[in-house]
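Q: Okay, next protein. This is DNA/RNA helicase from Methylotuvimicrobium alcaliphilum. I've checked the sequence twice, so it should be correct. Can you predict the 3D structure?
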Amino acid sequence: MTPNVIQHLITGGDDPFLPKLKNDINSANRIDITVSFIRQSGLSLILDALIDALERGVDIRILTGDYLCVTEPVALRHLLLLQESGADVRVFETHNGQSFHMKAYIFAFSSEQGKSGGHAYVGSSNISSSALKHGLEWNLRVALEENTARFDEICRKFEQIYTHSSTKRLSNQWIEVYQQRFENQPVVLFSGWEKEETTLPPEPNAIQQEALKALKHSREMGYRRGLVVMATGLGKTWLAAFDSLQLDSDKVLFVAHREEILSQAEYTFVCIRSKAKVAKFTGQDHQLDADMLFASIQTLGKQHHLNKFAPDHFDYIVVDEFHHASARTYRQLLNHFKPRFLLGLTATPERTDQADILSLCDDNLVYRRDMFDGINSGLLSPFNYYGIADQEVDYQSIPWRNGKFDPDQLQNKLATQARAKHALKRWVELKQVRTLAFCVSKKHADYMADYFQQQGYKAVSVHSDSSIRRNDALSKLENAEIDIIFSVDLFNEGIDLPLIDTVLLLRPTESKIIFLQQLGRGLRRHLLKDSLVVLDFIGNHLSFFRKPEALFNVGVSKRERSEFIRQIQSNTLKLPDGCYVNFDLQAIDFLAKLIATNIDTQEEIYRSLKASKDRRPTLAEFYNAGGEVQVIRQQYSQWLNFIVSEQDLSVEESECFSCYKDFFKEIEVTNLTKSYKIVLLEALLELDGFRQAIDIKDLSMHCFGIIQRRRALLDDLPDEFRAVDLLEGRAVNRWRSYWKSNPIKAWTGGNKATDQAFFKIDDERFQFIGDVPENEIDIFLALIGELIDYRYMQYEERLRKEPPVQSRPKADVIDINSVRKQRIPYFQDLKIACGFFKTSQHDEDSVHKVALPEHYGRLDSERHFIARATGNSMDGGKNPIKDGDFLLLEAITPDRAGSISHQIVAIERQDVSGDDQYLLRYVRKLGQGEYELIANNPDYKPMRATEDMRTFARFKGVIDSDDLTDA
């Protein structure tokens, strides 16, 4: 319908201009605006409406001026972002005392019947908060139908000034010059209220301040990459902007997978860094000089685009929402750039979702705060969650393909009167004042809005084809003019809705991230609400476990899901302060029946994880979800063989795996006494070393850089290299020699005659033995990367456990029956083999404190500990060690290793499955770097020490069991 054509005077005060302005922006198909100045406080009031208009294809032209330097540069930066999205923005340059005082807003409309109309406002309102909301302003509206001649005259005058020789197209360069004038020239204002219009950038909230400190500390520790996990609503994009300032970075790159995320990030960064030149990367060379560049991974990830930038072009890189793309997608980009710091961001709810992400950030989890942390800190609203039985829909009868319901059949099952009646009944029982409802499709949203309207409620449907605009609907909901908005996906993320107090979830959710984003729309704090009511419909399908997986961090195994159901039934769920959860009995019954026949095998864990992610999980994700990789190997020989059995490798991936399965298995099971073997493989990935031979000096130096970057690996280095982060002079040659005698030797088959060589050295160049076809190389590298990520995760988890004796307090002396004794730890599950290597899974929870008399010497619980011997290989000689003896041991650490020759030491290595093994032996040095391990019992032959063995403790003596006392 054509808008009202009656001529009208808007006077401000009780008759504000803003509602009329937004209404016309939401209805127009052409918008022309010219004002003498624009303040950020006013632009922010209409920005969402202008963005919505551009998204639906409206032509927008905006003209402002530099008169008296009143227009704010930060507003111009935001206008530049509008221009990037399709608007045409110009500025009028005033010279020689010329003034620029015009204020006109012109809107053209067309109805569905093809009739045209229009409104033109001419008056006193510039774009500022005061002018649009509460200031006394006079603006005369001229309607096209009421006075065509006058309307056309206003349009002609606008055209004349818009094409005037003094108008310039807005650009980064123009803003940069204007910014200097704005800051250095005293601003002459028209009235005192203008001083209150200045918009200051926001300050970090409490959680962001904690994260900033953690990021700073992480860099001080030497990390150059790190991951931050922050729940929706806690402001992770704002954090990135704050941290880029904290690092004092000149060039910032922000990478994401979707245009919407990039656009939202641009507006956020501009608010914080209003002086920086900003651009969205489309492949054009002129964008290369931007201070802040925002790029999609799909565009920038291509090698010919990466080649436009030097590796150190950006000193700060942000990669948002890693979880939306595989690690494979990002490796090329991360291998190319060498920033001062790279920040990975995600709101993903559980650590299995972070496995691939964390590996790309050097396994450096800098900071994590989930939704519950946000609620407990007072930054997010508490919630009352109701799990409602979706009793009107049989989800088992809806076809399920590729991790999703058939969309047409799902829509037909949900858009029914019985289901709408059930939803309305529960909504009326539990709702508060302002509700946002999420539906499965446009048809479903329209159906629900119509049904609620028929029952007498003020409801609207909002989607890309709806008559009401998103920002208009939100304004009406905020003013309580409507009760409920039914939407599909327009409100998933990026919209701040603090007044929403009820969320109605009427659809199954394939993505845990989307579920949390939808929930997060109502978690913003507001004075008018005490808590958020969440009405979530739970159906009889396994996919509905994704919601508790996301909200309550429930695992995918039968045991974890059963425990969750038990906690619901016993009301023992751990919740933030002020939160409440209630599941219908029938909803609990749905969930319980779904897992009643579910066998918790490794295959089932994998399949549940796959269903939860809508893709095949990586080995690292399976491992982090509690999957037992060793069991998989026992049954299927190797991980990728198992994936083949699940039919989850493509034809191309299967062919690649078939050709190189021995190499893939070696990566998966190779012994890792140190991290060196996988560091070398990662270096080859980053240096494109599977396509070409790499100079050993370049390779070894790059490996050193990886160890410096992955700070958890520094303890693997000998003392002479551990304290430095840059090798120079003779140290380069010493390092190259050291590296050549360790992982390079191992990968070329030099450690054992039985080792299979997968690489060779030719003219001091390290080369893969194999010629991977170009059409397979990307798949080949991706599979290697997946296995490397797992081995890093497995290895660094061992490091985090640390030898317990290093983390214990010094032994204190106590009196037991008037005898002074010293307390040290006894690890009941740590068996030191006196025979052949024996697997002994050490668990710190098994530690037990015991006391020893002082005649055993001065003991230190940071170094000394007790373990049991098993076997009889050391049962011989002058000091036999028998099966079952209690052994007093002293941990060997890099800073106090000393000589181990002619001593009995405990040696650690891994078996082919990656499990730890321990052995006790006498060490005899044979030559430079060569050692032999001798048993006391002559029945056991000497064995050579190999690179995969690590001495972790020195034998001090056998303890008389009568001397042991519980402490």
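A: Here is a summary of the prediction. The chain has a mean pLDDT of 86. DSSP finds 32 helices and 39 strands in the chain.
Q: Noted. On to the next one.
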